[in-house]
């Protein structure tokens, strides 16, 4: 395979990746749009197990392990019969898939790429506080991350800050990481109002949606809503998850007439639903992980033209710098600053001067695929020099 921008690769996706995960969907779509062929050597073991950080119980864990082991046996048998290809890719959550992928890719002398997406150690120990660093679970997550990075010829991560964390935490050379943003799905890129109606509704409403993980900073959002409850500013909260019970108890103690909480919105309805709002809310936790990522939801909101307000971080800074005001940031975990920023956005919205999203800020599968494709070109070029 030659080293030029016109090179097209034959890629094998190996393992039990969650193909419903937005990161994986967008990456694979993007690679295909860049002209590559993607062959699936894949088994689905994650159905009905979408949150992989909260497995509990010996029976459930053992059942999942046996499903995974049987899936690996079938995948390895299938892989050796595949036609020739250029690269093997393991997608999230391939921390253990990669052991088998490395063995069989090495037998066929193919480079191995791991799309890490997130760190198991950082998520379980640092962000969600589900285990202590020195606990058996904490150590297991650490070595799963470290071993996977060591086995991969290249590891993909979503931001420079995230890649720097992986390199330092797991003592892996920075040159073995490549940065590929998460981006937004094509349906968000293609969306436009069907009837020419206003994209942001008739009243100023800010929206947050997600799975209520600590990284989202729901308590900060709620406190900001409470600060603004006497003003003509409305909020929509969508979702549920790890901190939903705490959120429900807080709202019972502090009723907020300016907030509507919806359990969920169908994925296919999200673009139109979001467009009925004037401002999108990102993440506001002061956790370290929140400072290293730019979530899918931020790209989705930008893609439909919805201005975004989120926490300050090294990860969001490059996007904020070219956003022409469409991305605003506030200090992490600071309800007062968040309330002030929302109030300022309301004032701009009222005057009709709320900054639009510039086209160059929209990152869809085509943009993601091109960036990933360039990373693969560099990987193969480096191997040819070795």
List keywords for this structure.
386 residues; Rossmann fold; alpha/beta; single chain; 2 domains; globular; 14 helices; six-stranded parallel β-sheet
Please explain how this structure is put together.
This protein has 386 residues and is an alpha/beta fold. It has two domains: 195 residues, 3-Layer(aba) Sandwich (Rossmann fold); 176 residues, Rossmann fold (3-Layer(aba) Sandwich). The chain is built from 14 helices and twelve strands. It has a six-stranded parallel β-sheet, with helices on both faces. Helix 11 links the parallel strand 10 and strand 11. The radius of gyration is 22 Å and the shape is globular.
List the topology elements.
Layout: E1 10-15, H1 22-33, E2 37-42, H2 58-79, E3 87-90, H3 97-107, E4 112-115, H4 120-127, H5 136-151, E5 154-157, H6 160-169, E6 177-179, H7 186-190, E7 205-210, H8 218-227, E8 234-239, H9 244-253, E9 259-262, H10 270-275, E10 279-281, H11 296-303, E11 308-311, H12 317-321, E12 327-330, H13 335-351, H14 365-385
Parallel strand pairs: 1-2, 1-3, 3-4, 4-5, 5-6, 7-8, 7-10, 8-9, 10-11, 11-12
Helix pairs in contact: 1-14, 4-5, 8-13
